């Protein structure tokens, strides 16, 4: 399960992410979508009822779209759902959920972006303790849901801007995930555009180090399942 733990503060009252929801709804939307984009293992399936309960509290169109996605997941054999997810996000780099790849490929500029995201998480009071890279979309979305005014947040919005490139490649292979990402891209379009406009350079590495851990500060529950990069 991808999850942020630490001492970072949530969004200040009145900060708008989606523009047309209350602040608490905005946080919930990003948080739930971050969870829905995780690998659908047994833990994910056990948490679906809790996600459904939280989605039921959201405004009408958001509730309907996310509920439809979850209904589709539950209607399929779990093995089939896992195969779809693997085929969608792990097989083809053009549909990876490591979002900085879609902007900069395997380049030095992406390496700087990963370092910048890592520094941003740590500065806000969070630290990864999983094998996922800092630009993994569920991580970025969850961070945006709890620390939307963190220093350097424009870089996170730049990475989210890679969603459109993923959607086009997913429509035939995994239409349910393509629909979820299309919905996400639509509700975040203004913020993504603003992040790109404000962040046309990748920040230099700020105190980046690997494998750091401290009490109550990690980005994934359950500890490391791979090298902490």
Task: Give an account of the 3D structure.
The protein is mostly helical and 229 residues long. It has one domain: TorD-like. The protein is 55% helix and 3% strand. Strands 1-2 form a two-stranded antiparallel sheet. Helix 8 crosses helix 11 and helix 9 runs antiparallel to helix 10. The longest helix is centred in the middle third of the chain and has 16 residues. The radius of gyration is 17 Å and the shape is globular. The N terminus and C terminus are likely disordered.
- Based on secondary structure, the structural category is mainly alpha
How are the strands of the largest sheet arranged? 1-2
Number of β-strand runs: 2
Identify the CATH class. Mainly Alpha
Stretches with pLDDT under 50, minimum 5 residues: 3-23, 194-229
- Write the CATH fold name: TorD-like
The termini sit apart by: 17 Å
Rg of Cα set: 17 Å
Determine the fraction of residues in helical runs and give it as a percent range.
Answer: 40-55%
- CATH architecture, by name, is Orthogonal Bundle
Succession of helices and strands? EHHHHHHHHHHHE
> The biggest beta sheet, please?
2 strands, antiparallel
Please tell me the overall pLDDT: 77
Write down the overall geometry. Answer: globular
For the record, the count of structural domains works out to: 1
Strand content: under 5%
Regarding quaternary structure, how should these chains be classified? single chain
User: DSSP helix count?
Assistant: 11
């Amino acid at each position: 399960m991808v999850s942020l733990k630490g001492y970072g503060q949530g969004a200040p009252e009145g900060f708008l992410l989606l523009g047309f929801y209350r602040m608490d709804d905005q946080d919930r939307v990003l948080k739930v979508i971050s969870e829905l984009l995780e690998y659908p293992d047994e833990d994910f399936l056990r948490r679906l009822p809790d996600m459904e309960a939280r989605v039921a509290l959201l405004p009408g169109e958001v509730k309907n779209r996310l509920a439809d996605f979850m209904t589709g997941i539950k209607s399929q054999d779990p093995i089939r759902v896992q195969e779809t997810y693997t085929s969608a996000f792990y097989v083809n780099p053009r549909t990876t959920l490591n979002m900085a790849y879609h902007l900069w490929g395997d380049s030095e500029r992406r390496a700087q972006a990963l370092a910048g995201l890592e520094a941003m998480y740590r500065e806000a009071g969070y630290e990864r303790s999983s094998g996922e890279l800092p630009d993994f979309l569920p991580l970025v979305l969850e961070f945006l849901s709890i620390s939307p005014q963190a220093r350097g947040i424009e870089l996170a919005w730049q990475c989210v801007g890679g969603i459109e490139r993923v959607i086009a490649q997913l429509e035939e292979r995994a239409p349910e995930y393509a629909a979820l990402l299309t919905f996400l891209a639509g509700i975040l379009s203004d913020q993504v555009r603003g992040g790109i406009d404000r962040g046309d350079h990748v920040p230099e590495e700020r105190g980046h180090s690997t494998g750091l851990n401290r009490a109550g500060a990690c980005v994934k529950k359950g500890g490391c399942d791979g090298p902490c990069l």
